[in-house]
Records
---
Amino acid sequence: MDGQNQTGAKGAISIRNVTKIYDPEGVNVMAVDDCSLEIAAGEVCMVVGPSGCGKTTLLNSIAGFHSITKGEILLDGEMLCGPGNPKAEQGADRMVVFQHGALFPWMTLGDNVAYGPIVQETMTKAEAKEKAGHMLAEAGLGDVAEKFPGEVSSGMARRAEIVRALINDPKVLLLDEPYRAMDALTKSIMHESLLEVYDRTRVTIFFITHDLEEAIFLGDRVIVMTTRPARTKKIVNVDIPRPRDYTTLTSEKFRQLVEEAKDAVHEEAIKAFEAGERELA
Amino acid sequence: MSEAAQDTGTAHGSHSSGETTAPKKRSKLSKALTSDTFWRGIVSLIGFVVFWEVCSQMKNWTGVEVPWIGKVPPPTEVVAAWSEIFWYKGYWESWYLSTARVFAGFLMAMIVGIPFGLCLAVNKYFYDIFFPPFEILRPIPPLAWVPASIVFWPTTEMSIAFVTFLGAFFTIVINVLGGARTIDIRYLRVAQSMGATQWDLFWKIILPGTLPSIFTGAAVGMGITWEVVLAGEMLSGGGQQGGGGLGFFIWSSYMGGTVAQVIVGMISIGIAGYLSSTFIRYLGSISMPWRKLF
């Protein structure tokens, strides 16, 4: 793994024997079954798997939005949730970027980014706004800092959202299919900008996606999950050196890794599809 | 990456869609005057008035009465009646009385209704205690409260005020409650992850997130308020304590037998209602700048 070599890296996540059972109407639905995963500090960990397989459940448990039923999750050796404390406390050390974007529509991009430091009272309003302005400019969003999220393209909004997460200096970025429903061109720009952010910050990234090429291009490791209940089926180590750019996409090594992951995912996709058919029948 | 800076232009009309260089700073007025929608609106209004005039006058011209519309005085007669009473102080007093009642009742409903709705949305105990009686009282039409409120309140004016207040109150509360409850949970999660306190959540997330619903409720509530005030005024008559207003104006014109004047009153209310909702829309657009994108 080439992720943990950086200076003073923090943000190692240990997921140990985590099980999550939803019990909405007395029917137990097992979303995650005895799942274990060690994510090194500063690693980019990509998670792929069929729809509804429990990937997001895992992410929500790390973020503290959901409780877990069994097992434990640790961050840098400290328990987030586990026996006696099923639900992790939400905190700025684990920032989430959501699927369709969750910038506050009523604040300008600048105010969105400044929000974290202001509510945490780590900076004055003026300081926070100044820092937000700097960080947005760094991400190429200097011109649109005073615009509302509804006024900018989805690509800009998503980049601003990542800036909003980073200003809190998180140990872990949790991304839940952030680039879904974007066109290929925008997506590739997003990828390059995320890689650029990563090379600069070396923050641990837990990234859920459906897109295998995206997973291999961005990740240090790709975790292929089984269909529900989620377990790790296969781990693909991506030993393509960083920094990566679009030329990586055409390399032999890249194609080979995509093929390798594709087989594993395909198998699960068929299982998930057949399970769905059975449920309908 | 300057797509966001591009002129969004108008959705309709062909005048500027091709000109990418069109500066963004065109005055609203000149925009309105050059838009097809504006001119279609003008043509439609003129067409309506002409149709009305022709139908009303048909009997004078040909001896054949057009059903229903033939009984209505023509626009020319209405305008004549209007230009006559336009100079009467009493007519404008009616305007003033009705408008003052509408805004008093409406403001009270906002002042009480918005905090009440927000409390219902954010506090479970508050909801459990206050929502059931609220839901039982809500379906009662405001006008059904009239006799009871005449008994409750010492003066007619206060009865009208109370019924007006009720008309807007229930609508505003139900909109605020619904709006606050449908705020995207992701906003709350992000804010909480960043360390927002309950206070921050309320002022920076829940309140701005509810504003669109507050203004929807206000717009609907304003309409109901006009209805209720007018009905209240018709019932109360023009006595010494309370009464008067555009509702009474219509009623007394009817009793006096000048149908043209009744129509003047009706159109006056239409204009007053339109101005009120324009006012609400204006307030909405200045307090929600992020929605002023189109």
---
Amino acid sequence: MVINGSGNGMLLKARGLTKVFGGLAALKDVSFDIREGMIKAIIGPNGAGKTTLYDLLTGIYMPDDGRVLFHDREIIGLTTHEIAALGIARTFQTIRLFTGMTVIENIMVGLHHRTKAGMLKSSLRFPAARREEAWMAGEAMRYLDVVGLEMQAENLAGSLPFGQQRLLEVARALATDPKILLLDEPASGLNTYETRELGEIIYAIRDMGITVVLVEHDMGLVMRISDEVLVLDYGEIIAEGSPESVRNDPKVIEAYLGSQLD
Amino acid sequence: MIGDDSKSQQQRPHARQGGASDRVLSFLKAHKALLIFAVFLGVMPVWAEPIASTIHLDIVLVMRLVGVFTIAAVGLNLLIGYAGQVSLGHSAFFGVGAYTSALIAVKAGFPVWIGIIMAILASALIGLLVAPVLRLKGHYLAMATLGLGIIAFVFMREMTWLTGGNLGVTSIPELSLPGVPKNDISEFYIVWIIALIILAFCSNLVRSRTGRAIRAIHQSDVAAAAMGINVSWEKIKIFMLSAALGGLAGGLYAHLQGYIDPNLFYITLSIQLVAMVVVGGMESIWGAVAGAGLLIFLPKIVETLPRWIGPGVPKPIADYSNYEGIVFGLILVLAMIFMPSGITRGLSDLVRYRRSPFINPFKKQAVE
């Protein structure tokens, strides 16, 4: 893992992020750091601004204020595909697979920016384009292997059961060769067994040298696997720290009043 | 034939490496359906010519037009079916291609093929110039492209110093190759050789990196962008390719017909092209062939029916000439009701899943 110029090991720094939707502040002055190699969870009640935060980090929305440095480079103002090419990949809370394409094709879309055969070269089947295509097919199988979907390669993505669709989204994001992977509620809709498996997969991803950020409601998973937890409520950070310290924070308990932090 | 095509589509990701013979073999395997179709076309004049007078329909003559419209429809299918960007203005590119090629041949006196190459380039350029409309989505894009089609029509009609206005361009030289006799059959072969090359090109394209990118954009542009795909640039590229194919078709059309005027390139042409895509089958290369074939042949067949029956036909029916409009409308309505996924999809479903290609629109659907 090469660290480009960030001597303190901070992969991503967000400062003063603010986003207002029609007078309602979805995020207010949110600042945090993500250290390389860690698993960081972002939790908070519904509507706390977690997904909005992801949308700002990936260039889907422009923040009204604030900066984001990735490898000490400002990424606010870049387009979504430029940010993806820099190494920030994400999954979506509502699954956004390419449902009409096969499982392996979904992964190959993830490999898009790492390959370069143009329209004419690949349509005329130049040898270089054919080699690249073969490389993509092999590489895609490798990513399917990570999430255990290699047997499903030729099936339509839309025909997979829900849990496998979530895993396919993770694999597709991994295929972009990210430095940092933003997972948006990957465990929602998964059963206990699938959630445990997801935990193992997230560990495996971290061991590949990829920093993982996790927006999640499943507190069991969050407390078990994260190194650091950040708590958002009404667009503001109310706590940040180790799972233990966050769990005992009175402000967090208040925000989650009625629900249980176990 | 169509079932084979979809199977080879699935095997395709594991592209084969190896020597030249291996490569030829893999090409033949990948394009099995195309080869069968090529053989079918190759022998067509042999059996079609003798029966032309018996059925009052010159099949080869009509097939030339089917070839031309196949090229335009396959280009439009890349845009509508694969990339999900509806264009109701492809008559503009078709017309620009036709006028470019015709004027270069007639007024400037250049050889036919220079004109056709210029037709491709001119339409691609126009496609690039109007590409900003691709920022619009869905119905808005459809309406904006419809406007483009109308604007192009007005230009063709009003720029009389160049286009001749409503009088059109006449005595456009026919398609010909050096050393090949000039007749309908040689034109048929020329058009279809080009069309088959385009079909092979496009069926490679949709299974390639670019093809996957545009299909991804169709299904979720946000997810495609998050995968590192430059969504607007990919849209522009496919729009330009689609425009270029429209221009190629237009150029060929001008030389086949020998005469063009602006009214040939009105909105009705755009609608016809979209209908070919939709009736033939979206997201299907063969859909373009099926759509163009059906929508060009059926009206012509219906037109000849009174002549089959002979002198016994009542005079109003024998005199009525606009069967094309009626048949076109009927095909569109019936296809949308009974086979909404198009001919090729319906047939490939039949082969693969043993499912009827027709749906019963009156059957009660389970509530989801």
